[in-house]
Design brief:
The protein is an all-alpha fold. It has helices at about 1-5, 50-90, 90-110, 110-130, 130-165, 170-195, 200. The chain is elongated, with a radius of gyration of 62 Å.
């Protein structure tokens, strides 16, 4: 106990000095070390470096300038084409017809159109050879024949009815009356014409009072 009290005695001539056992304790000098350098800036374009990014940006600007130049050239070509069409008397409708004709020709020679035409031809051949198609065609043919026969019968019946009506007494009496009226009308017209051309009617015959003695 006395040795312990001597070590912590403030009046001891050895105060402020470390004992030999304290010299082996490790000291943390991290706080006193220099700060670490910041990491390199990561690019936002899939891990590209700054040099690669700058190169791509320069290429993008160049491509956009080329696109603008091509648009100006295209606009000038379109104006020149319009002037040529106007001098030749071609209307927008003619251009539309030509474009439609060319588009249709392109469709006809396309692989998809040719394959579709072949498929349709195969389906048509299979359909015409099927039993269902043959039965349907026979049914329609029979129906057409029956319809034609029915119409022919109707026409025969109507003709026969008209013939019977013309031979009936009522129709003959009506026909006789019409003929009588027609003859009277025609006869009256003839008599009126004769009266107009006769001397007595025209007043050309001299009067008896003025006859010479």
């Amino acid at each position: 106990m006395e040795s312990a009290s001597q070590d912590i005695n403030l009046n001891s001539p050895n105060k402020g000095l470390l004992s030999d056992t304290m010299t082996d304790v490790p000291v943390d000098n991290t706080s006193a070390a220099a700060p670490a350098a910041p990491p390199a800036r990561a690019s936002a374009y899939n891990g590209l470096t700054e040099a690669e990014e700058e190169e791509l940006r320069a290429e993008l600007v160049k491509v956009e300038e080329e696109i603008g130049t091509l648009r100006q050239v295209l606009a000038a070509k379109e104006r020149h084409c319009g002037e040529l069409k106007r001098k030749l008397g071609l209307t927008p409708l003619d251009g539309l017809k030509q474009n439609l004709s060319k588009s249709w020709h392109d469709v006809q020679v396309s692989t998809a159109y040719m394959k579709t035409s072949e498929k349709l031809g195969e389906w048509n051949e299979k359909l015409t050879r099927s039993d269902l198609y043959k039965k349907t065609q026979e049914t329609l043919s029979q129906a057409g024949q029956k319809t034609s026969a029915a119409l022919s019968n109707v026409g025969s019946v109507i003709s026969r009815k008209l013939g019977d009506m013309r031979n009936s007494a009522t129709f003959k009496s009506f026909e006789d009356r019409v003929g009588t009226i027609k003859s009277k009308v025609v006869g009256g017209k003839d008599n009126g014409t004769d009266e107009l051309h006769s001397p007595s009617a025209s007043g050309d015959k001299p009067s008896q009072d003025n006859a010479p003695f």
